[in-house]
Amino acid sequence: MKSKSIIWKQFYIPFAEFNLFTLASNQIRQIYDSFVTKDPQPVTGAVPLSVRPAGRVVYRKKLTYKPVLVELFAGEASISSAFHDFGWKCYVNELEEAKIVWSEGVATNGLPKKSEDVTLLIKDFMKIDWDKELPEEIDFAWFANDCSTFSYINNLNCKCGSGRTNENPEGTTEQAWEANRILDHTVQQIRKKSLSEFKNRTWFTFAIENPDGWMEQQSVVQELLRDPKIKACVVKFDQCHFGRRRSGQDMGEFKKRTIMITNNEGIINHFGTKEKTWHPHAPDPQYICCKERPCQSYNQHKHAMAPGFDGRALDNGDRHSSELAPYPQAMPACIANAVNNWWLSNVAKAKLKSAS
Ligand SMILES: C[S@@+](CC[C@H](N)C(=O)[O-])C[C@H]1O[C@@H](n2cnc3c(N)ncnc32)[C@H](O)[C@@H]1O
Ligand SMILES: [Zn+2]
């Protein structure tokens, strides 16, 4: 019966084995607490993140409501793969299906091809119909916009630059303007999802990831960062903290300073930020490779080469910057862990509250 199933669903989410009609609120609280895992403190010093466990999944057996991730510009789709390990439903957008790394059998390094929790959108991001092709309730969206014109390293000393400068961060080439149009559309979707009222909740959160560069200086990003309804900030980190393995290969360690423009408090509180306007209690950056927090290759990093390589002394092991787009394996696991813990202590909690 339709009406019965709606009522049932409301009072039965998110832990399937307990009928919330039958439990006192302190019992509900205890059950909830027993499933919530605390975010581990960031590792400081020389301990590589890659030795951390990917995360705990035990509570997942009890959940019926699955949180939703949308990964845009997915490349290998390692973010979806990590969120899938935590039991999230994943929508994966990429132009080229061949870039996605699938897991074979039970191996966790890759996206499980046959999972009912994976939906592929192989198409131009600009052509996605967010109302028809994606669910209304999205818990977290990850945008890894193409960085070739925004990245400092790609524009270093070479003729393939975008014409972006501090005075003119918009650039002077067609390619830079196309990247600007895609970024405008990205921010428009973020605004739309963040500000529209849903029947039950408004907890859409997001992160736009890019190498350190001119993305942060785009006016559309600056406006987004100032918006008190969205509360986004810039979180910076160095990828070398996340080890050297990627897609089964030893890639060496590259410092690769990275930014996330995000309003997800799980990420902000775990990774830390200098910009505390909207998040005054956030710690300082935890994953910047420096004397106080060195990675295991501190002071011996290989370099990302600029596309033209002109005028730079190169070392064996330095790599073309385009080879460094996919993330080291432990990084998506760390992001998924932080966001999942945020989800548990905010969204799942709110769902329980509204049901009790
Ligand atoms: C910076 S890479 C992402 C790398 C990814 N984070 C990883 O770990 O593999 C950007 C990706 O966006 C894809 N892409 C570029 N333009 C796109 C568009 N208009 N729509 C969808 N995907 C696009 C590219 O094929 C590329 O794989
Ligand atoms: Zn380092």
Short description:
The protein is 27% helix and 14% strand. The protein is an alpha/beta fold and 356 residues long. The longest helix is centred in the C-terminal third of the chain and has 26 residues, at 330-355.
Describe this protein's structure.
- This protein is an alpha/beta fold.
- The chain has a single domain (2-355), classed as Vaccinia Virus protein VP39 (Rossmann fold).
- It is built from eight helices and 13 strands.
- It has helices spanning 2-12, 25-35, 78-85, 130-133, 174-195, 219-226, 265-271, 330-355, and strands spanning 68-72, 89-94, 102-103, 111-112, 118-122, 140-143, 205-211, 233-238, 245-246, 249-250, 257-262, 304-305, 319-320.
- The strands form four sheets. Strands 5-2-1-6-7-11-8 form a seven-stranded mixed sheet, with helices on both faces. The protein has a two-stranded parallel sheet with strand order 3-4.
- Helix 3 (78-85) packs across helix 8.
- The longest helix is centred in the C-terminal third of the chain and has 26 residues, at 330-355.
- The protein is globular, with a radius of gyration of 21 Å.
- It starts with a helix and ends with a helix.
- Zinc ion is lined by residues 238, 240, 255, 289, 295, 297-298, 301.
- Zinc ion binds at residues 238, 240, 255, 289, 295, 297-298, 301.
